[in-house]
User: Fold these one by one.
Assistant:
Number 1:
Amino acid sequence: MPGLPQLLGLALAIGLLHAVAKRDYVLFHSVIEILRVIVLGAVFVLAWHTRRWSASNFLRIIGISSLTVAALELLHALTYKGLGIFPGQGANLPTQLWIAFRYLESASFLFAALTLRIRMRPGILAGAYASVGTLLGGVIFAGYFPDCFVEGQGLTPFKVVSEYVIVGIFVAAAAVLYRERARFDDVVVRLLMLSLLCGALSELAFTRYVSVFGAANEIGHYLLGISTWFIYRAVLVTGLIKPFNLLFRELRQHQRNLESEVAERTARLRASQALNTAFIENSPSITLLKDLEGRYTLVNRAFEHFFGRSREEVLGETVFDLLPEDAARALDHNDRQVRASGAPLVMVEPIRGVAAERSFETVRFPVFDDEGKVTGTGAIFTDITELRRAEARYGLMIRTSMDALVVIAPDGRFLEVNDATCELSGYPRERLLAMRIFDVEAEFDATRLRAFMQDIAAAGSARFDSRWRRADGSIRDVEVSVNYVTHALEPCHFCFVRDITERKASIARIEHLAHYDQLTGLPNKLQFEQHVLSALQRAALQGRACALVYLDLDNFKVINDTLGHVVGDALLREIGARVRKLAADERRCCRFGGDEFLILIEDVDDDAVPAALARQVLVEFARPVAVEVHELVSTVSVGISVFPRDGRDFDTLFKNADTATYVAKAAGRNAYRFFDASMQADALERMRLLGKLHKAIERMELRLHYQPQLDLRSGTVIGAEALIRWQQPELGLVSPVRFIPLAEDSGLIVPIGAWVLREACRQAAAWQQAGLPPVVVAVNLSVVQFRHGDLVGTVADALAESGLDPALLELELTESILIGDVDAVSQAVTRLKSLGLRLSIDDFGTGYSNLAYLKRFAFDKLKIDQSFVRDMDTNADSHALVLAIVQMAHSLGLGTIAEGVERGDLVEQLRRLNCDEAQGYHFGRPMPPEEFADYLARARSRAAA
């Protein structure tokens, strides 16, 4: 049986192979397969040349079959994915060859074990195995062999089942061999059974991999190599040392007659040294022999290459003739120690050669004569310089990694940590190595964590978020990537841990922004609408009524314009607090926009309940609000619509409550009104305006103005937002706030939007043709325009008609567009992007703001709403939100543009926050095309100067 040195050598070989696999998996695979081919070829040579005098049918079958198995295995190695010898071949062909030779190998062992008592003719066996190998190879290369591996899916059922069948054959062969163990030497039969069992285990590993470069594939090849090593020990080593005396028990009867012959052969082998010379000459390690005086008596080619001296120059010399005295004295001292002790000496030492100093792992050993006296010393020097450098680089990489690296034993002990781990946890390295993962883990208790670690060990890897408790007691959010690693010493969990506390805080701020009004802290319109929808569904099922109460502050614009936004915002915060108190439940109220609030009343029996709340609202709002030095009173107009009487959905109830609010304002404000079907005055006015809007395009009454957009880093004008204006002959300049909702309600927004796209593209192309620098023109899209009509065709036609480069067109989508059929939205966005244009989200932070949409849809830019920008220099919350949006956008690969920049100090703040672009009155108001052309020309002149 192998001793400790052999086992240590095997472990070292596996470790080196593992290092090779990490750097070049194809080389690793080729090395293992070629070594197996060499061993199988040697087994064939041994069996073939002993066929006339060996009585063992087992050796004959195994040896002759080894040649065919080696041929198929060589083809498997040469066709392996990544080697490139057979271009165009995937992983299926080498996997088919693998199954073929493993079937043949396992069946040969079983056949040999079953026919121990039968003597077969070597020629017939050789012909039969050659035919079988040729047939298998032809079937595989002709494409008739079943598929064994499919790219992207992994192993086929045929391949997995075949592996289990092969496992069964190996186990059966081992069982038969155990039954016939009396016909073998005890050591040999144990080695053969170990080889068969390792072969079976390797097949089990090969049922698990999905990639031909995966961990299961690598482990299977280690087991395959160990199986081959046992064959090598059982057949070749035993056969060379004791000429089959230890391999086959039936030859023991010839032992006494062969002892003298073996002794003579051994003496001749010692005398000739031919085999030893071949090994020594071709070894990459420096090998040498010295006599008792330290003179060289043998050196190999590696020695000559390293020291730059031929053996003729070296033989008879000492180390003092090769190296400086200090270096030579150290080496000579070690040789003397070996001669004195008569025992080997293993150490690592530096030696300088012709080129440079290298590190060597040296093995010095005494040389004895036939009487056991020391006649000199020998040494083998293995260059480990690159290995040491690789270890140093690996250690440096681990120590300096920005992420925490943790190696954890199955029982939770910290086996290794780097500097980043110490910084993250707050513990010194020595303290951590005395602790367990349970001491810092704050998300899972010890029982759950142990179970989780077992699940990871079974799965092989995992990625998850958790929390760590620092030495000071604070909690940090972490992202953990873990792989379960098994090796010869001890399995472990290899983890990279990243601190994501700040990222989670930013996400939480964004998520809060998505559902709550930043100024008042009340739910925003999206969250409120979702709550109303649920309440209406419950009310419909229970046959109950609900009331939607619409609150619109009276004359708030006067306060805002007179006293400024700071006072106006403070008033709105106090109003928001009163609305929250009146609603009793925060979910039943919201700030719908500007100075408008909504309250939902559930389980309404009659109009008395909402009327009582409305009166309470009037009283509550009439109380003065102290803001700085001002004492303000802002009355409110209230409109009420009742479900199901005034509508069965949120939009209808909202519209009718809004109509009632207008009636309350018309009645003198500071009043409430229930919706009544007779409230049509405003509707008639809208219809009149809508009639004029129908002819606006035909009469060429629509205009586009352009507001410049600048790059904050360079100050260059890089774009312009196209803003629509309606110059109506009778009504004058009609505000977009007045006619755009009408256009959306009526569907006119589709042809109006198409006109805006054509005109914006035409104008941008005209500027370029006039010699002005190209700028990106941004066009707003409405929800109706996005969801109705052929938007993609309209955009494509506008680009084609104008000849504008698609990269110079940017479409601005509001967040409300993204709500609804996610697949339909995704398809539309994808088709738009395929045109080559840019997409941005307008007024980011005031609507839906769902991060999932940012990751799913291919947007280029986020437009930060002016409500956050205009007071970010005085409001810490606004500043923090703008920073969070910029950081989040950049982490997702998106650009940012801030709108509503009206002061120079805001520009500097935005630059410090790394915001990319900006627009606002500070740079320029929306202007007609001719004025914008002059603006652009002046900007170019300033840049040139």
Number 2:
Amino acid sequence: MLASRLRALLASSTASTADGATLERLLRERLFVLAEQAEIDPFGNPILLMALEFSRMMDGGQASAGAIDQLIQRLSVKSFADRVDRQVRYLGDMDPQGNALAIAAVVRAVAGTPLLPFEAFRTRIERVVLGIVLTAHPTFGMPVELARALMRMASGRDEAGGPLGSTAGAETLREVMNAEHLPPQDLTLAVEHEFSVEALGHIQAALDRVNEIVLDVAAELYPERWTELRPSLITAASWVGYDLDGRTDIAWSDTFAKRLGVKLAQLKRHRAAAQRLAAVEKPVAAALAPAVEQLDRAIAMVEREQAVLATVSGHPERVGELSHLFVEGRDAGLVSAAPLRAAVAAGLAASEDRVVRRDLVALDASLMSHGLGLAHTHVRLNATQLHNAIRKQVGMETAPNDPSHRRSYHNAINDLLGAVEPVKVNFADLMAERATAKRLFMIVQQMVKYVDADTPVRFLIAETEAGFTLLTALYYARLFGVEDQVEISPLYETAEALERGDGIIEEALRSPHYKAYLKRTGRLTVQFGFSDSGRYLGQMAATFMIERLRLRLATLLARHELGDVQIVLFNTHGESIGRGGHPSSLVDRLRYVSPPVTRANFANLGIAVKEEVSFQGGDGFLPFMGFASALAVLRGVLETMLLPDPEAVEDPIYRENDYAVEFFATIQQLFESLVEDPNYAVLVSAYGANLVPRTGSRPTKRQHDGSARAMEVTHVSQIRAIPNNAILQQLGLLANTLYGVGRARAKDPELFNELTQRSPRFRRAMVMVETALGFSDLDVLKAHIDTLNPGMWLSRSAVTRRPTRATELRGVSSALERLDLYPALIKLYRRLQADFLDLTDRAGAHGGGLEGKLEPDRHHTLVLLHVVRLALIHRIYLLAMHVPDFSPHHGLMRADIVARLIRLDVPGAVQLLKDIFPKVDPGALPAEARVAEPSTYEGEATQGYAREHETLFDPLLALYGQVLRLSNAIAYQIGAVG
């Protein structure tokens, strides 16, 4: 295993890294001693004590700047190796040959013994059981090069799936050892999109291999009819570049360009497949020649369209040229896969070679399933954006679910649906339209006209809480002529939406237009938001509410006689337990968000279900950074979704419905009270997102003045879900997974223990709690809070023998007194501490506690990361006391800059300082004046503030850079960002 070799390299450090290795050994030894002392001293905090000791080592020279940098790199690489191990455990066997055999076994099991009739087998093989959706959530914690290296190490194979030789393996290890281990510096939407396109390419290659395996087995079992099959078990989709929820930085041209890029990549794949097949048999070459020519023309046309589109935002006058290009090149650019499929059918009729026929059928299956794109398209916006667009037309003055106006709003939008006539738009209309909702529907119309007319576009609506919202979306779909090309999907993520999500759809069903739309398209799509619901309700309670809503939706469809309508259940969880992603394995992840009992319930009602899961950002794209790991994902999906599941037969948790309802309702009530606690908002905003590197292209900071007070939030709703989760992870207590579970368990500890042992569903949830416990440490949280305690810094000043240090320490204390964060934080800490102790309960006062699951070595590494980072944060505070005084600058005083440094807004504070104290280059002053009239005067204009830059501003940035590297390593340990 390459991860083991990586650890061996660290263990056998060369002389150049000996300082870092020695420092790590000393810290681990000292940490062990302090941890033992903590067992008998409840008043000491080993984390804070260790951070103070490390700070003294820095003062005394035992921890030089070089040694600290080496230490950080060692801990980062070690954490990276642990993340490699996690991927191995998560995906299981990644040998392509072994996975091919496993997939073939699944297909044989589907065919059954005795053999299913062909038509029944065909129905099973051509029915999608899972959709993989790539979403650009801000979790890009490493550059794409490092992501590739991680998966090479995990799989032992290169990106194409071939064995990783010794030379390539050694090069991969060198790359990891020398990498910076931070997100991409220039993290733009384009970078995220390129990342997603690479991942989608591997998904498509793995899907092709799955289809080949299905057809090989079918050829053996059904030799007379196997070529009639068009396997379609798994689909791929993406919203990278199309998600406008809360974003104003994505222009329509960006969205369109990203969709063209996905099309271009797929056209090139299809051309390569056609050329490969044409090279085998002359009759096949003749049949496929028209397809190859069409693909050549289409690729050239799309590249021309992309080139012009890239210039439109800066040169709007070129939109006319763009329009002509799309209109005149529509046929050449291909907007339907039908001509390609016709050529493939001709090739199939001309060939007698079984392997060639198989590959032709597989190509046709790809064309049928994904058309002219590597992925299906998901666009997304917020319900409010729809409401703002329709407000005047329906006279909307209140929220759409306002009981006093709900009926009138419903009637008004229903009348509009009955009278609307479709309109055609052009690209000039797109440029002129200001309403985001209208513009997005216009983009979809242009996509249907000029990119892909065959494949439906998913239209996701965040924060849907009223049937009116769905009818509004349907109105605009009808207005812009894409009603039959869009799948309108509500996103449920708030308590109200999860409690009455079926009622929201039922409201929409009162409109004959909506019911007719569902029957015509044959599909009802629903999205569940695990991240936001977990942020507001607690992850345990949110998942339970989502499952209950799934069951109610099945009943709803049956009640409205919509059994012939397929339901698509899109679970937008992720790879983090804070976002609903199960940590044990891919199979556990699928079973957790799509419990076997609920899947069986839909089957018993005769309702076809397609499950979809999101793979979010850099964390989620990881398994698809190579063919071998992508195939391992598909193998896990097929085994889980196609084979009989013993958990679907009986699970005790469903018999104990009253207990389950009360258990999770208790968690919800307790967590909601925590969320409403103003002190909780103080905790998550004390450092805020400054504690973590920027991991996404979405703007994370709202505009504010320069004061630290303006950076505070009064409610966690002001912080997005993933940064909120990331902050909790970095502070050392995963409250959104843990909070309330202890007290819920204490209500009936005996039944809790019984269900934990006997119920797979309940046990799987508790594994998430135990995992969160493994990454949580009250001492770590307390150390961060005490860092903001003015009294701690005063106490330190009382014992130091260095006058300069005493002044610094008292200055930090005064700055913290002005911020006045500690009283709220220590009060909240006591609340979190009591809840945490209820959960762990060493004394068994409440029926025995749960324990965290983390290997000792990983636990020590995680603690060291926190310790070293705390010491560096303390160093930033001490340096902040050397900020020189200055006259008010745009309303800012020195205290404002210091406060921003205290809250770790180091880049913003330093930039302000550099503006106030510029580093002037004397050579930039007028040379002619200096020559004409020599001077011996040296003023500020000629001296500048080079010393401040060298001794204060640059060191602050360097320390903060180290803080971010340590934060990223903590994310490595936890296995996900946020």
Number 3:
Amino acid sequence: MHLIIAEKNIVAERIAAFLAGKTKVQVTRDGAAAHYVFDDTVVMGLRGHVVEVDFVEGYNNWRSVEHPPRSLINADIVKKPTEKKIVGLMQKFGKKATRVTIATDYDTEGELIGKEAFELIRAVNSKVPIDRARFSAITKDEIVKSIQEAAALDFNLASAGESRQIIDLVWGASLTRFLSISAHRGADSILSVGRVQSPTLAMIVDREREIEAFVPSKYWMLSLATEKAGIGVEARHTHGRFTDSTEAKAAYDATVEPLRVTDVITGHKVDRAPTPLDTTALIVGASRLGISASYAMNRAEDLYMRGFISYPRTDNTAYPKSLKISEQLAIFAHGAFSKEAGYVKDHLRSVPTRGKKETTDHPPIYPTSLANREEIVDDVSWKLYEFIVRRFFATFCIDAEWETMKVNLLAGSEPYTITGGRILEAGWRGIYPYSKAEENILPVFAKGETIPLLAKTSDEKETQPPARYSQSRLIQRMEELGLGTKSTRHEVISKLSGRKYIEGNPMKPTIVGRAVTESLEEFAGTITEPTMTKTLEEHMGDIAAGKNTIDSVLSESRKMLSGIFDDLEKNETAIGKDLMERTREEQTIGPCPVCGKPLRIKRVGSSQFIGCSGYPDCTFNTGLPPATWGNAIKMDEVCEVHGLNHVQLLRKGAPAWKIGCPLCSHIKSNTESFLLMPGMTAEGVKKLNSVHIYTISELISRGPEELSKNLGLSKSEAEKLIREAGYVLALLKKRTELKKFVSAHVAPKRGRGHSKVSAALISLGVVDVEALSRADPKDLLEAKLSEAEAASLVAEARSMVNISRMKEYGVPAITLKKYVIAGFDDPEKFISVHPAGLSLATGVSVTTICNHQKLVAEKLCRPCPEKISKAAFEGGIAPLRKKAEPELLTPLALAGVYSPDLLVKADAKTLAKVTGIDEKQIVNLQKYAQKVVEK
């Protein structure tokens, strides 16, 4: 049996389909584990790494005296399975295999995953041949060729990946643990530190300090307006920026007529076509399309696994000679890019462009198959795919060519110039819209001619601080400094964002991100510098090249980290104090409106709110959406009214939710509730806010005496206000219950969230669940509910209300549950049926049922149903059980027929109509009952 192991299930599925050809592939799925069988071949997919590196037992306790953070540097490392079901399946097939082929992604990480699979197979089968298939695209030709030409696993490359895995674990765990413990941070607010993460964060912090330290300086730009042949033209002073205002004014004053043309210079410019895409260029291009680095790589990975593009993690910017251009263009002769493919054929360059980086592992990123919008449904993936296709086309197109023109002028004695250009040959620009170059076609000028001076301008401007890093620019800078790899750089940025160290794009450090960086810079600066990290990266690269060993590099890493801990441990107390003081500001948004003490963002589990640091003496607080919607982060913007920092919620993969001033938001959200009070006005609400009453419950809690004193009211007026507030509080409680009910029973859809449905119901007069239970489903269609949804919602509400009433009437919860299951939750229905039938339907004793029916009937002011004894019920039903099935006995008993004599007396036709039982069955049962009675 030939076992082929791919990195992911989707790749395994495609490999099986390619290799099987017309042979049917048998698919078996068991949760995360799946495999594909055809002929004598089994193909299975992993889920990336199926084992992880971790410290040996005993190092998980952060507070351990025996194993402090420094001890992690030399702690033993073990490998633990993370996907036991997949590992078990792989080893099951591995035992029987006569050949095993590793078909994971061909990069450092993929080679390490392959080595992990190799070791797991070797543990159960020491002799089976294991080879390695290498491919750059998941297409039939590439896959078939790679399996046929499979070679040995590259253990050096895998060891390079393993060394990075271990080094990142040790550095991250030991430093994170040390810093978090020093700053007394809990498990939900650890201070993460990393070998690549920390110097990357330091670059963002450094740039922010440059921006803050930047002192703008004024400068002046001079221009003039003229025209030729009715076409308006702008000319700029050749001096460029004037930094001296006196000099600028002198030049401005000297700009006078006549305006003469002194030179007309024409030229020719070649606009080079772009080079092939590597990973960094892909991320930069995606950024210009509004796609974040991590999401771009996620979508590119998906396109690769589906066979639409080549491997997206590459440093190569030169196509291999084996790439057949004509065949690649032929793929796009039909479909969405047929027009562009034809254009390329008409504008084909002799050889494709090439960049400075050339490697032998993977080609540059290029499209491997034609896709259409039906196959790539989501807009982001399509935008990325189209960009890759057009970039690929552009690299085969001839260069663009421009005619340039420069016109030099003299206005009095002051020199000015006009520049223009027009495209002579569009070349690659005809199919690549991502790099715009606008033409500026000038009218014809002649040397020595005089043209009019229509206007002159002196614009005062200021120099600007350096720009913050965008994700794409930061990744470029990381590449320049040797920080991380093409596969991990975008993940580092995501981790910094997830740790709430940075925000926005362009990126800005948060208070806590800056605090961590500046503390590390002060006490152990080497962590934040790229030199040490770059050195380790280079030496890990040497492992892959066979020039170094994993043991040597790990030993070097431990030595570096030990030196860092020498500095850290000497300053542990100072570091902890520094971090606590710096990060306290992270949560402080301004003064409490009630007592003036600091208001802070606080978290308890997934709940978060703004609370006063003076608690319990001051109880002021305002709610925030739960952390599932995003972590609350303090913003720089300050409310002009309340002096509080604005707050926003940040969640990975979602745009920031800007709440603004939390007190303004709090007041706004509660004003509507106040105005539900009959005697309340907008001015009245402002008056309540002025004495720090922001919610209905706060108004009630003040009490009449304090309220009359605060608002200058009489005691009776204050009491009336509290009564009205109590009414509104009860109403709000009902509305909250309605919203919870809607959330539980209505599935959200685009443009129809739970809040919108609830608001629509309230506007229709359905203010609580009880009102919903009485509603006509047809009336609820205005709330954007379908007929089926409306009917189901009303039925569920009715059931909930009925159950609540039955509880109020005294029916115990345990027994009530049985009544509900049997369909007797409606109090009216409950007392309308015979207790004998209820007993058969629910299994509850007939005596208990009689007692419950009496309770409910009295509450409803209805006649009490017939009461029967247990003996009478058992004596009557026992002989009928010998002849009739339970499905016949229950409806008969519900109709009051639970004994032979009652059955004999009943009219068969009427009983059939009431119970739904066939009349012939009833007649036959009556004959049996007659015999029983006669005996």
